[in-house]
Design a protein that fits this description.
- The chain is an alpha+beta fold.
- About 15% of the residues lie in helices and about 35% in strands.
- It has helices at about 95-100, 105-110, 165-170, 210-225, 235-240; strands at about 1-5, 10-15, 25-30, 45-50, 55-60, 65-70, 85-90, 115, 130-135, 140-145, 150-155, 160, 250-255, 255-265, 270-275, 280-285, 300.
- The relative contact order is 0.20.
Amino acid sequence: MCTAISFLHYFGRNLDLDRDYGQQVTVAPRYLPLSAMKNHSAIIGMATAVEGYPLFFEGTNEEGLSVAALNFPGNAVYHPPRPDKVNIASYDFISYVLTRCKTCAEAKGLLENANVCDDRFSDDLPTTPLHWLIADRNMALVAESTEAGLQLYESPIKVLTNNPPFPYHRDNLCRYMGLSSRQPENRLAPSLSLAPFSLGMGAAGLPGDFSSPSRFVRSAFVLHNSPQDTDAPLSQFLRILEAAAIPEGCVKTENGHQKTIYSCCCDTVRGIYYYVSANNHQIRGVDMHRVDLDSDKIICFPHNDTEQILWLNK
């Protein structure tokens, strides 16, 4: 279970899992061989490196195009390679798009004739059922590979969670059209003297559980009621993600408890990747422009999930 959003010139996500995958903040420099490209835009994001190759959970390239992968079990269908299509391995979808495209419009053009393949990275790594949120500073797309092929949806909502498919999430928002950040009016019985007894009652009925549809609605509500001129966009972005975060113990799985492993936010203008993690809420940052982007070697920074406290009287 995950949540991804695009807000102003920031892009990021919650990664919700019941285990750790050795993820690290990763920079793929311009000359690191990636998706059959030897010279490409540099990418920064969170990834698991396997044999020196980054398997990104999400990433942003130098031009500010971003992609995040989210779990899509039961609906994702990958297909055998086709000679008449642009064939993309599911595990390489993020790198493929970010090494070839600078904008959402370019990504849409590339993916309109794409086929997401069922190729595996290795025998030890089975394919993962995924769908993707793609965004630049102006627009967002959702890409879903289903039985019918790769489906692309333009999304002014700029939010994605997990199952069901995106059309359900989009249409489900209509059930919550009456929610508001303003105080409610008495439309139940105008003849009665009814008045709100607390602030925030305009959002009464906003779903509070951790299911994918509820997280989608909750994230969309918070995002689209967030001020565009906020003085603290990074903090506001993380607050939006926090509305959909999963505390440990609230969602049980066969392997234990699912929780939000990390929440990240990439400033797509400055190329700075920020994140907080389950056990360390201090905001950490990696500036991709402070490393050698003309290298041909992957650059990784430890996840660092140890709690840190800023003492004010010690």
